[in-house]
Amino acid sequence: MTDIWFRTGEATVLAADGQFTDAMPEILIGSVRGPAGQAFASMMGQAAGHTRMFVIRDLNQMVRPATMMTSKVTIPSAAYVELLGGVVQAAIGDAIVDCLAEGILPKDEADELCMIVMVWLDPRCPEDPNLDQKDLYRTNYEAMKIAIERALTGKPTADELIANRKSVKHYALDGVVEY
């Protein structure tokens, strides 16, 4: 049985210039027997505009730990669903398997854990005729690996947050708050 009950993590990896492919996964990892497992099971239905799906790497290749993903924004089109359930899902799945292979996720607890991933996919991506799907894959893969590592190591720590309180501010506060 795992002692990982409820861990959270997030990461942002920015797009290449001219792309809308920023990735910002927010994740919950925990025991299938605890609150994370309850939340996971509660997501088994669908919510209008927010498709939920198991993370798979390809047909018949569902990842372990079992992972459910959903979009942070209301899904606007079939083209959006195709990117979300295609490139983005594959990138997240590959990142999870690589975290198992690299020991970031405990392989011996893969069936005792589950994950929920809230995914940012910019609604402009499906309409962008110059969309770089390789960059979409890169940002989601890198961000997912970082989010998992942060969740399992408790990063940033309370001490790190306190230490950088006056040196780091949300980008939306530029010109609003001065430290």
Structure description:
- With 179 residues, the chain is of the alpha+beta class.
- Helix content is 33%, strand content 15%.
- It is built from four helices and five strands.
- The chain has helices spanning 35-42, 78-101, 133-153, 158-163, and strands at residues 7-10, 26-31, 52-54, 66-71, 113-119.
- The chain has a five-stranded mixed sheet with strand order 1-2-5-4-3, with helices on both faces.
- Helix 2 crosses helix 3 (133-153).
- The longest helix is centred in the middle third of the chain and has 24 residues, at 78-101.
- It is globular, with a radius of gyration of 17 Å.
Any key phrases for this structure?
single chain; 179 residues; alpha+beta; Formaldehyde-activating enzyme; HCHO-activating_enzyme; HCHO-activating_enzyme_sf; lyase
Chain-wise SSE layout:
Layout: E1 7-10, E2 26-31, H1 35-42, E3 52-54, E4 66-71, H2 78-101, E5 113-119, H3 133-153, H4 158-163
Parallel strand pairs: 4-5
Antiparallel strand pairs: 1-2, 2-5, 3-4
Helix pairs in contact: 2-3
Sketch the topology as an H/E string, one letter per element.
EEHEEHEHH
The geometry reads as globular
Mean pLDDT figure: 94
Name the strands of the widest sheet in spatial order: 1-2-5-4-3
- Radius of gyration of CA atoms, rounded to a whole number: 17 Å
Strand proportion: 5-15%
Structural class: alpha+beta
Gap between N and C termini, in Å? 46 Å
For the secondary structure, the number of strands is 5
Low-confidence stretches: none
Tally of contiguous helical segments: 4
**Helical content band:** 25-40%
What characterizes the major β-sheet? 5 strands, mixed
